[in-house]
Amino acid sequence: MTKKVVVGLSGGVDSSTAAAILHHQGYAVEGLTLWLMKGKGQCCSEGMVDAAFICEQLGIPHHIVDSREQFENNVLNYLVSGYESGITPLPCSQCNKTVKFSPMLTYARENLGIDCVATGHYARIEYNSESGHYQLLRARDRAKDQSYFLYDLPQDLLAHTIFPLGEKEKSETRQIAQEYNLKTAAKPESQDLCLVEAHGSMRQFLDQHINQKQGEIVNEAGKVLGHHDGIHHYTIGQRKGLGISAPEPLYVIKLDPVMNQVVVGNRDSGTQKECTVGHINWLSIPEPEAPIQAEVQIRYRSRPATVSIVPLETGRVKLIFEDPQFGVTPGQAAVLYDGDVVLGGGVIERFES
After folding, report:
1. Given 43, 55, 116, 194, the catalytic residue
2. pLDDT tens digit string along 89-122?
3. Catalytic: 116?
4. Do 16 and 148 sit in the same domain of this protein?
5. Backbone angles phi, psi at 142, to 5 degrees
6. CATH number assigned to the domain comprising residue 107
7. pTM of the predicted model as reported, rounded to 2 decimal places
8. 3-class SS at 246?
C-alpha cells in the first residue's frame, strides 16, 4: 500500500527538496502551504507561488490553508505582548506547535485522510522502544540543526512526522534540488524569522504594533546614562546600539517595564549562575522526579552548557549552570539535550538581576 504524506511547503529550497525526496521514494505526496501573513508579506506571496510551481513540477496536489487568524492570535499577539512586558519572546517554537505542525496534521487527517506530515526542518526523529517515546534529535548538519525550535512538539506529532533532511548536509539538499531540477534549487536562504523578511527588521515590525515611549537608560545604581524610545528595542545581553558612552563596555542586563527603564552593567553583571524555566515540554523522556544533569542551549546559536536540572513543585525546573552564563534572557527557550537527543525544553522566566 502506498504511503501518503502531506508536506508543508513554504516555497523554499528545503521544503521543496523534502517533498521531492519523498515523491521519488514512492510516497503519495500532497503539498500544503499555510497562508500566514496579512497584507503583502513577501515570504508568503512569493512562497505560495513557488510552492505551487514545485507541486506542478512534481505532479502532486497543492493545498493552501488560510492560517492568518491563527498566526495573528498565537504568534503576533504573543510576540507583541511579550516585548511590551519587557521580555524577548521566541516566536518560532510557538508557531511550530500552534500554527504549523498541529494544524497541518489536523487538516491532513480531517480533509485528506492522511495521517502523516513532513517538513524541510533539519532535525531527526527516532522511536526509543525502551522508554516508549519518540525522540527528537539534532540534525546531522549541526550548522543547520533546528531542533531548538521544535522542543515543544508533543508525542502525537512526533509519531506522525517525517524530516527527510535530518540526515543531510545543506550542501546535499542544494545538490538534490539541482538534480531534480527544482525551481527553488538556487533560491537564496530565507531569514530565520519570517517577520523580519516581511517587515525589513524586527524593530520595524514592533514599531507598527507598540507605541514608542521614551524612558531612561540607567546603570545598576540608578544613575541616568542616556535615554531610549522604547524598551521593546532592547534585549538582555545587547551591547551595540545603546547610544551611550562609558569607560568600559556596557550591556543590557535588565528591562524594567514598570519604570520603563533599560538597565545596563558590565559583563559580569549580565552573567547568571542559575535560572528558572516554565511551560516545560518533556519530549523524549518522562518528567524527572529528581535532579539530573544535561546540556542546555539558552539561545538558538549558543553553545550547549552543562547544567543541573532541579525539578520544582510547580512543574517548573531550576537550571544551575556549571559555568555561569551570559545573556540568559527571559522569554527565550531553554532547550535541554543529552548528546543529540532533545530531552525537553521550556521558557526562561524573569529573574532579578
Report:
1. 194
2. 998 888 998 999 999 999 999 999 999 999 999 9
3. no
4. yes
5. -65, -30
6. 3.40.50.620
7. 0.93
8. coil
